[in-house]
What we know:
Blueprint lengths: L22 E6 L28 E8 L4 H14 L3 E7 L8 E9 L16 E4 L2 H4 L2 H4 L8 E5 L6 H5 L8 H10 L7 E3 L1 H9 L4 H12 L7 H11 L3 H16 L1 H7 L15 H7 L6 H17 L2 H21 L4 H14 L4 H8 L4 H9 L4 E6 L12 E4 H13 L15 H21 L7 H9 L8 H24 L4
Parallel strand pairs: 2-5, 5-6, 6-7
Antiparallel strand pairs: 1-8, 2-4, 3-4, 8-9
Amino acid sequence: xxxxxxxxxxxxxxxxxxxxxxxxxxxxxxxxxxxxxxxxxxxxxxxxxxxxxxxxxxxxxxxxxxxxxxxxxxxxxxxxxxxxxxxxxxxxxxxxxxxxxxxxxxxxxxxxxxxxxxxxxxxxxxxxxxxxxxxxxxxxxxxxxxxxxxxxxxxxxxxxxxxxxxxxxxxxxxxxxxxxxxxxxxxxxxxxxxxxxxxxxxxxxxxxxxxxxxxxxxxxxxxxxxxxxxxxxxxxxxxxxxxxxxxxxxxxxxxxxxxxxxxxxxxxxxxxxxxxxxxxxxxxxxxxxxxxxxxxxxxxxxxxxxxxxxxxxxxxxxxxxxxxxxxxxxxxxxxxxxxxxxxxxxxxxxxxxxxxxxxxxxxxxxxxxxxxxxxxxxxxxxxxxxxxxxxxxxxxxxxxxxxxxxxxxxxxxxxxxxxxxxxxxxxxxxxxxxxxxxxxxxxxxxxxxxxxxxxxxxxxxxxxxxxxxxxxxxxxxxxxxxxxxxxxxxxxxxxxxxxxxx
Length: 502
């Protein structure tokens, strides 16, 4: 799992520049061009006709603080006033107003009523979900009713607190959330779609997703205020007016045009690429490892990377370890899932990001084009570097411009053959020494595990070899993780070799 910056949630005090991060970019935005991303062009089409709207509705909006949830409630409240209706709202933000759960309660009526602002059990007509995890909170579910509530759900997978605290914890399957929400809503009328992916593809911005959801809900006849009133409220709000108007209108189009919605699903998601086609030595090495399709994919990605990282001999070391794993699995009569773990973890340890590798990665094509597409053709960028070798000087990060940095990186990348030798100018820090130790230490651990592998202890063997997943980060963070990893391996391996299952 890779970390990506959620640009819209950044604190703009630039405290990150002073943080202990070894390498990142700062971009000076082109002042003439808007930094609105690489926008996906949509076919021109008229807006669908206004839907039949209810006179009144109770609306519940569920999301994460700092992403515009309260703004949506305010826009709909203002729209109700523009339409001559009455609204009562309550925003439940809790202690964490940014990043914590937010539940906005909104009642829109034709006449003023003496009623609680908080939506009670079973009282929700329209459920707008910007965060599927929050929507399955019992406090939210109790307010729905299968015979009354219709949900419009953005399926974006926002990292949970558990994922932040426990690095090996993955996002739960979407079906789990679907079942919980549809139990208390009109499942046949609900709408589930990737609003954030569409917003990023079309507008280059996550906050537009919320107004896309509102547009879909409005066109489905779930919001008791007119489209013109909502657009007037967006203008009145005064924030990103043009983008939010377009997002609301796009949501209306998506609700009326199933083919357009289908064509945009997944448009803004990252990843999913196929491994590169291999030839020559890389293809020959990758072809030596038999196993599952998943294992083949892992190897096809990693073998050419290891060749580029060091050389063919280095990649061959990797493949030879995997071959030993597969032979042991076949002898024990188990599948290739242990080798899949090793393929992932061994590559991570072998391709540790030292100065030479960071330089090589920075030289990859497309960075300048990506930056100028997103931030304007006049955008400039600098590398903010804090290499471990300069830590003793305590001088903070160095800002190096693009024109100076690329020749410097090219020189560093060519020096990769010095890695780990006596001539390596970067190799004497504690972090680099430990990284080199792990490259030998982990294969030795693998061989000890394989020596006792059987169908009965295969799960225990996989768990031991997966412990390397906690070796992450850099500097003091990485060193602490390595210490914890070694301690856990020592204990788990002792049990494994003694035949003890806990």
